[in-house]
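Continuing the batch. This is chain 6 of the set; chains 1 through 5 are on the previous pages. Same settings as before, nothing changed between runs. Recording input and output for traceability.
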Amino acid sequence: MQERVSNFLTDIIDADLAAGKVKEIHTRFPPEPNGYLHIGSAKAIWINWGIAHQYGGKFNLRYDDTNPVREDDEYVRSIEEDLRWLGAEPNGGIYYGSDYFEQCYQYAEQLIKEGKAYVCDLSREDMAEYRGSLTEPGRPSPWRDRSPEENLELFRRMRAGEFADGSRTLRAKIDMASPNMNLRDPAIYRIVRAHHHRQGDAWCIYPLYDFAHPIQDAIEGITHSMCSLEFENHRPLYEWVIDSLHLGPYPIQREFARLNVTNTVMSKRYLRELVETGIVDGWDDPRMPTLCGLRRRGYSPASIFEFVKKAGVAKVYSLVDSRLLEYCIRTELELAAPRRMAVTDPVKLVITNYPAGKTETFTLPNNPNKAAADDSAREVTFSGELYIERSDFAELPPPKFQRLKPGGEVRLMGAYIVKCSEVLKDAEGNITELRCTADLETGNGMPADGRKVKGTIHWVSAAHCVSAEVRLYENLFTMENMGEIPEGADYKDYLNPSSVTVLPNAKLEAPLGAAQPGEKFQFVRMGYFTPDSKHPGVFNRIVTLKDSFAKTLEAAK
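Output for chain 6:
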């Protein structure tokens, strides 16, 4: 984030700085380590890291590991890896919510002693019933008026493990008639016997997020706790904790709308199910919206942050077209990616008048958009036996077809003009070979007689290419707004059966055999591709060459 970004969050910060309320901006990103980060996480990172970076402040990574049931060190490692890949360096430090368990516990005892919290024996179901509704106030728990001494004894016994899981909770004593349901004596501690990835079995009671989060923010000196919009109604509870424990006046919580993308699900529960049921090839499947999936697909940190920036920061729900993300990476690769020829569905083309055993090289540009670069061109070997795309030949061509056809001429990219003279087929009628003659006077120039040849197709030499598998990806889901799934329907009912197309017998320019994951290429006329990081010899399509979305953006300006 080099240029200054302005939005309603920076307006708040500007006002706080101008009023002298804070001197240094300190933000945090608090992911729960129960899954891999996704494109929605990138928005939260971009906002929190970007604002700290913009104001010369500090940015913390803090794992919200207060729920041991779903958390795992695998997710801890993946989160830090993704954060560093994005370039969002946590210059304020890396922390764990579990590091503050003892402090949270002591603060809970403080609330009990001051009569602001009590131990409740209601079951989870009864607590929900007592809570009331949006139109009816809640009813006080039968145990709401226990004395501080009794509550303190019971809470300490909860910590000692004397009670069964779920049998008791510690609740904040706020207001059972509040119009905000989150203030109707919310639970702030529950009994859970589960092995914690860092604390082991040291604890059998765990603080809930709404209680632990503001305490953690205060301990770390966070000034602005920026989170997604679903926490807006939780802000009064955040402020109650800060005020009741005398931790203020900062941190303050402010909310922004989550990033919702078309044809995509962001729920970790759904994403985990896709992985665990084998519907996708792991959390890093290139069809997944996870950051590791986008990285494997070939997206760059810059393209992801540019997408988030263009999507905007606001306080209202919106659904962002996934084509905007494609536009961002396509714009980047158009300037950066070297060009290579790759034939994804090959058919052999034999030049009958080309001298047997002869080879020569032709010079082709690496990237015409990188003028005067030292590596602006490459040498490609040509021979009398080539592969071309099967779709570049039509025995019965449609109107205005400008590629190869019987008796027709076409330019081989950067090389000779050829004319198709014969079509060979197998017993089932499938085309197996095209025989052509070349105008050997053309080289990569124009015909001497001035005739015009409109079509140009790409090719590779049969003896000087490598074989590879090419995978073409589309949206994982068919429904544009996956948040509007009808009641009773399963999100898996909207899986796209054509989300990946495998082309197992592609033929590529020979140097591509040494390409490494992370390198990106334009396969001319085919799209942008990168080697797969898990399967050698496989290339993933990052994005197609063209899309109408660029015109949509221009029209919106």
